[in-house]
């Protein structure tokens, strides 16, 4: 699996950015608290992953899905996270769909535009 327990920690920069977004601008974060929160978030992710894996195993599925993660949240008694997560997931899916739709829309070529334009204009 991993050689060192530190390899399981989320990147400090990511956790620091999240902390700064959650706190008022005038609040400073000590290095010690940053380290503690980085480790705590990593433990939470591992705990949730374990619970989601248990759900998948019970269903005899090898791939973790969103449904497994949501059921895992319920299993570890974090039900209050489910609704906001579902909302964020819906927004993410809309964003991805919009990007795909935009990518699929090809701009008309000059020739196609000329064919659509009446000659006597």
UniProtKB/TrEMBL annotation:
It is found in: Nucleus. Gene3D superfamilies: Histone, subunit A. Its main location: nucleus. Residues 96-121 are annotated as: Disordered. The keyword Nucleus applies. Keywords: Nucleus. One of its GO terms (molecular function) is chromatin DNA binding. Residues 9-70 form the Transcription factor CBF/NF-Y/archaeal histone domain. One of its GO terms (biological process) is leading strand elongation. Residues 110-121 have a biased composition (Acidic residues). InterPro entries: CBFA_NFYB_domain, DNA_Pol-Epsilon_Subunit, Histone-fold. Pfam families: CBFD_NFYB_HMF. GO terms for cellular component: CHRAC; epsilon DNA polymerase complex. PANTHER family: DNA POLYMERASE EPSILON SUBUNIT 3 (PTHR46172:SF1). This is DNA polymerase epsilon subunit 3.
